[in-house]
Amino acid sequence: MTDQERLNQELRRREMYLAEAQRLSRTGSFGWRISTGEIVWSDETFRIFQYEQTTKPTVELILQRVHPEDASLVRQTIEVALRDGKDFGVEHRLLMPNGSVKHVHVVAHAVSDESGTIEFIGAVTDVTAAKQADEALRTSEQQWRDVFENNPTMYFLVGAKGIVMAVNPFGAAQLGYTVNELVGQPVLSVFYEADGEAFQGNVALCLQHLGQSMSWELRKVRRDGSVLWVRETARAVLRANEVVVLIACEDITERKSAEEKIRQQEMELRQLLDLAPQFVAVLGPDSGRPMRALYVNRAALDYLGLTFEEWQSSHPQRFLHPDDWARWIADLHSEFLGESPHEIEVRLLRSDGTYRWFLLRSNPLRDEHGRITRWYVAGTDIEDRKRAEETVRHENIALREEVDKVSMFEEIVGTSDALQAVLARVGKVAPTGSTVLITGETGTGKELIARAIHKRSGRSSRAFVSVNCAAIPPSLIASELFGHERGAFTGALQRHLGRFELAEGGTIFLDEVGELPLETQLALLRVLQEREFERVGGGQSIRADVRVIAATHRDLTAAMAAGTFRSDLFYRLNVFPIEMPPLRDRREDIPMLVAYFVDRFASKAGKLFRAVSKRTLDRLQSYPWPGNIREMQNVIERSVILCETEYFTVDESWLSRESSRGHPGNQPLSEKVSTHEREIIEAALAEAN
Questions:
Q1: Three-state secondary-structure class, residue 439
Q2: What is the pLDDT, as a whole number, of residue 673?
Q3: Which of 171, 172, 341, 365 has the lowest tally of Cβ within 10 angstroms?
Q4: Kindly report the CA angle at 679 between 673 and 681, in degrees rounded to 5?
Q5: Any idea which fold 3-126 has?
């Protein structure tokens, strides 16, 4: 488990503690930012007001639940809070949709940040039970006495001078006293010293508002010195021509302890997150936009050079590199709003105006109903890794360029008219971006011509991806070309990028394109026509900015007549045809090719030849070379290994056996078929060395 996962787990556990404490105490929490009018409720607050948690809280929404007789009081309290920005408390009734009435007590504390922005953080408590008990007290003296004596709630009857006139047995026992020990004593004797002044002020207000209930939260002290948190609901009443204050006390020690523990844990967690080198942010659902900013740690704010309020009000496009914005938006809608964990690599703007690469990992937190309540986002700086990858990429490009320089011309050697005509066509088509179809016998250098076209094009700095369509099973060729999604077929354990995606911005070379199955031909036709494709098992269209160069040794016209190759695909591929001449049609190039290959393989073998035997050269020029340049390359390499003289020679028996077979142009149909099969086998053996 990573540090981030442990932090997320700890935060979820603490949020669960707070939610359970609120449920047990029937007390919800809320936040109200004056500058924006934004109101945030806890789950318990939604339950108290009987609103769905998908509802966005507003002042008007609250007033809809307020009892008509209390609406004026609540509106006045809100107006004073907006005007003065000070702590407030109010008790009023709620008229629920089913006609029932709830009594709630609302208390809020005003806090302000460094810029002076006011935010109220408060609690709303369902005090209906206490109100019902209070109502029973007014109903009859006997009922009042029964409730006072027998109810498992602490009750005190206090005179105007603060002397305890009566206390019920339960209340006395809760404090560790008997009834007689408390009656006649100053009520302040059982209060926490620091709360005595606040209690006296509250009682004074009760006496000024006869018959009106008021509530507050204070601490009492038991006989053993332990502290008891209570929520007191008090009302001044006239009893036997004397004004007394009846106080009902609810033990909220457990709730206060839980809240204090959670506050302490949250403070420690925030401090821990602020010390973390990673960026940590917490986002919540918002009906007005995809996500609402709830928290971000100090490392992220320092990097961005913003305050928390500035970060909350800023649009994400402000931080993202322009080239990453569209990709981030697509990821947001496909993954973020799809409610699944995901990650994305983007560049974020630093306070000094520079960008650095970050890996952003996002994980959802769900409630017991499966609804997402939070998104936790962790950002890891991967700039160094990206730089290393870029360095390796450039080194690979440089290495590939060197390899290409060697491989591009290693067999395009010669000055014959046939070869120069091909190279002239290469020079014309290379910079255009048009689709090219290269035909010719096996071993004539079709892939080298394709690489030459790529190197002379505007895509030369991007990838050149080669695919041998004949070497891939028909059942897998579509997945190899276009990729597949996870679960697209048995064994597809993860998303696989196809060759077209790997060649994005560059060139793809489809060797032996005539071997493609018909269904794959249709998908390739779509790429050529619409410049888009879909992964196997996927439904999303992917744009393809790829130049296509195809090659085949087959007669595609005959294949179309036989129904094994689509005519519409042929015409799409045959935009610019190039036919590679066989080696027997460019015999004047053979001496140059022989010298090139002898020098190349002799250097590799650590040998030195004075010259090529004239007899050998004449024999090589007269040989028809059915396997073309590839066959010549293999014959010379084999001869270099075996030759032990100063002059390079070739075992003439190798050439006489091959020469006796003739070349395909002089053979009957049955022999042509055999020759064609042999060429395929020889080509496969040559490719596999």
A1: strand
A2: 47
A3: 341
A4: 105
A5: Beta-Lactamase (3.30.450)
- Could you give phi then psi for residue 18, rounded to 5 degrees? -65, -45
pLDDT at 238: 82
Q: Which residues contact 278 (CB under 8 A, 6 or more apart)?
A: 4, 299, 378, 379, 380
**Residue 243, both tokens:** 């004004």
- Regions of the chain where pLDDT drops below 70: 1, 10-11, 14, 134, 136-144, 146-147, 269-276, 285-291, 332-340, 396-411, 490-493, 656-689
**Segment 342-368, tens digit of pLDDT:** 788 889 989 898 999 998 887 888 777
Instruction: In whole angstroms, give the CA distance from residue 547 to residue 454.
Output: 9
Least Cα distance to 183 among 199, 171, 200 occurs for 171
Helix 474-482 to helix 518-530 angle (10° resolution) is 20
Residue 191 is classified by DSSP as B
Q: Which long-range contacts (CB under 8 A, 24 or more apart) does 487-495 make?
A: 487/537, 488/535, 488/536, 488/537, 488/538, 489/536, 489/537, 492/537, 495/535
Q: Which CATH superfamily is domain 131-256 in?
A: PAS domain (3.30.450.20)
Question: ∠ at Cα 551 (545, 557), nearest 5°?
Answer: 115
Provide CATH code, domain 583-687.
Answer: 1.10.8.60
**Res 662: pLDDT:** 47
**Joined tokens for residue 641:** 């290994």
Strands 611-612 and 647-648, sheet pairing: parallel
Residues 6 or more apart in contact with residue 99 via CB below 8 angstroms: none
CATH of domain 276-381: 3.30.450.20
Q: What is the pLDDT of residues 602-617, one digit of tens each?
A: 999 999 998 998 999 9
pTM above 0.70, yes or no: no
Torsion sign (Cα): 655, 661, 665, 666: positive
Q: Please tell me the distance from the alpha carbon of residue 170 to that of residue 175, in angstroms, as a whole number.
A: 9
Contact yes or no for 507/452 (Cβ under 8 A):
no
DSSP of 280-321: EEEEE--SSSS-EEEEE-HHHHHHHT--HHHHHHS-GGGTB-
pLDDT at residue number 103: 94
Helices (H), 332-413: 383-409
DSSP state, residue 536: B
- Contacts by 340-345, CB closer than 8 A, 24 or more apart: 340/364, 345/382, 345/386
List % helix, strand, coil for the chain (3-state, nearest 5): 50, 25, 30
| Fold adopted by 412-579 | Rossmann fold (3.40.50)
- Say how far apart CA 29 and CA 11 lie, in whole Å: 18
Q: Residue 30's beta-bridge partner residues?
A: 41, 122
pLDDT at res. 454: 94
